[in-house]
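User: quick one, sequence for these tokens?
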């Protein structure tokens, strides 16, 4: 910024010295000065050796998790503090907090939050975490940044912060959580930022702002609109800053998004697709330093990212133990300082496939298990998506849970914008029920768990998206933990009774195995098969299991497939269609019924569970791997939970059903 432009922003008279400094700066290009009407001026002699300062610049860094950081991080705040020191610029970071976010404490399982919890006091922010080993002990780490923080929150808090700490500059990096968690759209998020600016100015009219724009993150299917919302917000912000900036309260844009190597296609600067790793910390600090030099004349050169970056320590967790407990099995290990998290794998003894769980603390308790199951475990440390330690040795333990049984008589129904669920009481000593919802249509969806008071045997969940298919289960909790879930019928939000399936087609694979396919409808949340033996006068019997897609495999049809007739119905909660056309199974190698697969034939989603009419054996098809595995069957889509096939009828499906 030119000296002429800078001097034009100075007040004409302030504490006697301001006019002199403004004039001196305009006449002497060796001096860059920054003064305000309410504070002692600060200036830097750029060509005269050591800098000369009347007092340090007071800077408040405002942000969310990207700015607060995780225990063991250096943080971009630290890299910016180092840059201030390298530039000879005295700075005083101010704010209510000093630390990063520590790991959550290792505790026994707790029930999910209640759907309508009573009002409670704000527990405050968790800011007690430490920094990377090697951080300068003189680091001035004061800040106003916390995980999960939104512009919508800070707009109501910033006036108090500015009044208390009187910063000269606000370095702000907010807005991602507003967009990412659906708090507001781009326009609403920037409205919050405008209020934030006006509230800060209400406390200190001459305060300066360096406003970072919002970074992109690697693509997640559940938030497919996030990239476009981020771009719109950044465009609105860039266009508004010249209008909002004033001579006494300057606002400059920090092009963080452009300098941060993170986008929908990948995030080399982030350890998890968003939050900065060592490289990302430097890139964010560099973006702010560039704005401070070019926009405010603070310092002479922007931060330079070193060619060699420090490596975050990683090691195999030690003291790894598994013991039988009231939840089934409890697994513990010694916490590793600075670990981003841990990956724990478990599997039933005798099974090849591992289930993988991620946790941020050094304890894991099994859930959804039955007495006598024996599990194997192994652990490794994780410092993000791409940095893992080696696996530990394998240990094992036998489950002896004292958790309640699964709820029964679960009834489900779709409403215009939600679901209704009810269930039968689950015995004594229940402390809470939990309704479990899984959006099976959206890639990357999380399982949502909602706590319900133990005196209630029903729930209504609203604000769901019409047309989305949800899988539903109910779990009971007692003093020991959550028990095995009972699974209800899936629902299609906003839909009524679905139409009957059409064009049922049966392919006989061999003498005892068939594959079925049919044309469904988007209103259907699932499908149920019906069968009968055509030789003994039996009536059609509906299977207890349903499938989410329009393909279904059945095995062990003794004494031969040609003795059986099948039909299909569509379900939406407790609503059920009439039957499709019924088809008698043809001879092995032949096809009957159909046709399916055309443009007008709705094929549904790509997940299925199928049921056996004959005798079950220990086997299941694993859709993700397109292979058969012994010993397990899928129980609730998307949860990763699996149960021994000896406990239930066999679910079996062929690879062709998962192309």
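Assistant:
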């Amino acid at each position: 910024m030119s000296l002429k432009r800078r001097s034009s922003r100075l007040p004409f008279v302030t504490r006697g010295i301001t006019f002199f400094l403004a004039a001196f700066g305009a006449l002497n290009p060796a001096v860059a000065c920054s003064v305000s009407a309410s504070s002692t001026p600060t200036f830097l002699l750029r060509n005269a050796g050591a800098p000369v300062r009347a007092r340090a610049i007071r800077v408040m860094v405002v942000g969310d998790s990207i700015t607060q950081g995780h225990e063991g991080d250096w943080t971009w705040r630290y890299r910016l503090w180092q840059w201030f020191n390298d530039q000879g610029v005295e700075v005083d970071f101010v704010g209510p907090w000093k630390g990063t976010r520590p790991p959550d404490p290792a505790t026994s399982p707790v029930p999910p939050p209640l759907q309508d919890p009573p009002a409670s006091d704000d527990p405050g922010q968790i800011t007690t975490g430490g920094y990377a080993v090697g951080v300068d002990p003189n680091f001035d780490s004061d800040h106003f940044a916390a995980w999960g923080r939104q512009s919508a929150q800070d707009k109501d808090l910033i006036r108090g912060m500015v009044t208390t700490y009187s910063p000269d500059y606000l370095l702000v990096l907010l807005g991602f959580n507003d967009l990412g968690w659906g708090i507001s759209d781009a326009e609403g998020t920037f409205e919050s930022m405008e209020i934030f600016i006006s509230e800060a100015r209400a406390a200190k009219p001459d305060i300066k702002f360096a406003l970072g724009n919002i970074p992109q993150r690697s693509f997640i299917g559940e938030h497919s609109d996030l990239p476009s919302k981020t771009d719109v917000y950044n465009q609105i912000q860039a266009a508004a800053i010249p209008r909002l900036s004033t001579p006494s309260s300057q606002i400059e844009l920090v092009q963080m998004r452009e300098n941060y190597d993170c986008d929908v296609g990948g995030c080399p600067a982030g350890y998890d697709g968003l939050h900065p790793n060592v490289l990302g910390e430097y890139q964010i600090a560099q973006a702010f330093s560039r704005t401070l030099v070019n926009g405010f004349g603070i310092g002479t050169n922007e931060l330079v990212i070193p060619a060699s970056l420090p490596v975050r320590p990683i090691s195999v967790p030690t003291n790894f133990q598994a013991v039988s407990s009231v939840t089934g099995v409890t697994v513990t290990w010694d916490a590793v300082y600075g670990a981003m998290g841990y990956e724990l794998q478990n599997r039933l003894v005798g099974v090849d496939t591992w289930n993988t769980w991620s946790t941020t603390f050094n304890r894991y308790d099994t859930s959804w298990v039955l007495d006598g199951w024996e599990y194997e475990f192994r652990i490794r440390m994780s410092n993000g998506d791409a940095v893992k330690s080696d696996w530990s040795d394998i240990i094992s333990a036998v489950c002896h849970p004292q958790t309640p049984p699964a709820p029964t008589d679960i009834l489900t129904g779709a409403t215009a914008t939600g679901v209704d669920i009810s269930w039968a009481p689950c015995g004594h000593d229940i402390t809470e029920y939990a309704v479990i919802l899984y959006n099976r249509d959206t890639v990357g969806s999380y399982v949502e768990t909602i706590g319900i008071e133990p005196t209630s045997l029903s729930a209504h969940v609203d604000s769901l998206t019409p047309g989305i298919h949800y899988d539903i289960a109910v779990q009971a909790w007692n003093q020991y933990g959550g028990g095995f879930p009972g699974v209800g019928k899936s629902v299609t939000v906003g839909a009524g009774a679905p139409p009957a399936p059409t064009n049922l087609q049966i392919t006989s694979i061999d003498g005892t195995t068939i594959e079925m396919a049919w044309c469904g409808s988007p209103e259907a949340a699932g499908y149920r098969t019906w069968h009968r033996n055509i030789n003994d006068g039996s009536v059609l019997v509906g299977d207890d299991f349903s499938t989410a897609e329009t393909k279904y495999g059945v095995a062990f049809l003794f004494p031969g497939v040609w003795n059986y007739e099948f039909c299909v119905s569509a379900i939406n909660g407790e609503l059920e269609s009439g039957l499709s056309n019924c088809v008698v199974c043809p001879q092995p190698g032949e096809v009957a019924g159909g046709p399916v697969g055309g443009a007008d034939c709705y094929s549904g989603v790509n997940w299925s569970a199928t049921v056996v009419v004959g005798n079950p054996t220990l086997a299941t098809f694993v859709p993700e791997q397109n292979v058969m595995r012994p010993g397990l069957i899928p129980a609730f889509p998307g949860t990763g939970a699996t149960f021994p096939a000896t406990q239930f009828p066999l679910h079996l499906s062929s690879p062709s059903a998962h192309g």
